[in-house]
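QA checklist item 7 of 12: single-chain prediction sanity check.
[x] sequence parsed
[x] length recorded as 535
[x] structure emitted
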Amino acid sequence: MTQGMVVAPQPEPVEVGAEILRSGGNAVDAAVATALAQTVVDPFMCGIAGFGSMHLYLPSVGQHLCLDFHARAPGAVTDTMWQDLLEQEAEDGFGFILKGRVNEVGYQAIATPETLRALDTALTRFGTRSLAELLQPAIALASDGYMIRPHMHRFWTQEEPAGRVQHIEYLRASPATARTYLNADGSLKTPGMTITNPDMARTLTRIAENGADDFYNGEIAGKIASDMAANGWLISSADLAGCGPEETQPLWTEYRGLRVSSCPPPGGGIMVLQMLNILENFDLAAMGHNSPDYIRTVAEAMKISTVDKDRSVGDPRFVDVPVAHLLDKAYAAECAARIKAGEGTHVPRVGRDTESKDTTHLCVIDGAGDCVSLTHSLGMPSGVTTDGLGFIYNGCMGVFDPRPGQVGSLAPGKARFTSMAPTIVFEGDRPRFIVGAPGGTYIAMGVLQAILNHVDFGMDAQQAVSAPRFSATSDIIEIVNRIPRGVEADLNGRGYRTRRYPINFHFAGVHAIRLKDGRVDGGADPGRDGMAMAV
């Protein structure tokens, strides 16, 4: 009998999930309840109108699969609809600036809302509790209120570089959003204040009474479609009715005698596995954790994987992804040989690698050893709330390339690449390390480093997610301020450009559970506001 545990970036949902386990619910019950609570208390990071990827290892029923629920472009889009709105490529090469910022904030930023359908599907197939029961804690949080946490306020006030929309604009995007999240005079609420959302409480109550189908085919669906049409956007009743997760098989590799599984494209699991394959060719422990040699080696693996992803990884329905090649051990050895020879990889930027850090994650294990690693998101919040419904829609249209003929161009029903990488490391047939993260393009890099910290350096879950991180998704190695300046100077002396950031949360918000000798320990990224709770 394994000890149960829930880990997530927000304390209230962790408590909700732990109580479900304590009362006899299974890992899927707890994950769904936790996720629903997250949609209330972290409404700019995730929502019932969001998207995500759920990695389920359920030995109690003999199942191991991924439920991928990626937001898709409406069926009526065309690849030329935004080409005349292009003003410039973002200053940092991440995305495009369109006239009126229509792809970033407002109705045109919204792609199909997938999260609620996916959570309901997982619960129906593998849970033991009803959706109505698991919605009750979320309804109570929306009705009674929840406290503004430091990370939430930090997101609201964050200065966005490269000419993109400032985060405060998400709070002002529609009257219903502003009414909930701003003071009456339009000023920001502050940490410690309470937010209530009676409209969302009523919406969730209706879903509890009528089922998730009301959101996609019923009265709520009608309100959504009417609001979209009234505000000039293309999401239709047919788009809503077509929402639903896709069951996929996890991708696999081996790393230092352990088996590692993660989600397939258009998720980012393939990047994590490819980087592990490359790094298996090095004695990382002998280099020393976060030494100049270590950072240089791992950063080059990150850059190689980023270039390969930019060239060939996307929605498999639209892109022929060379999965076998990217995960081939011989190809990994070739990449490692280039790194050993001192070759540096250049990461070209064409402006299509944009992804917001506006995401959340949870890890759950129950007493039967069933595991869930779930990453879900709004991508970038559109800021739009339909009057009377209470939830914010995703902003996933912001990542599409307005130029026709590109890998990331608009197409009906197309999903974008996401770095989401809910991952499970196995020792034989037993889970050993469950990990995932929010954090946009930094997700795969954060998950990778947590695995390396655990496997190569023997860290427990909290140590693995707390250790100083770095990232290389461009020609710049970005480092957290806790990496010594002497290490940075050494890297600079080797010709590497570096950029220093004050806190780890810039490099994703990694959360993990470790299993050892029949016991579990959890790690919640200290850069976020969450916790790990054992049951």
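[x] summary fact logged: Residues 350-355 have pLDDT under 50 and may be disordered.
[ ] second reviewer sign-off
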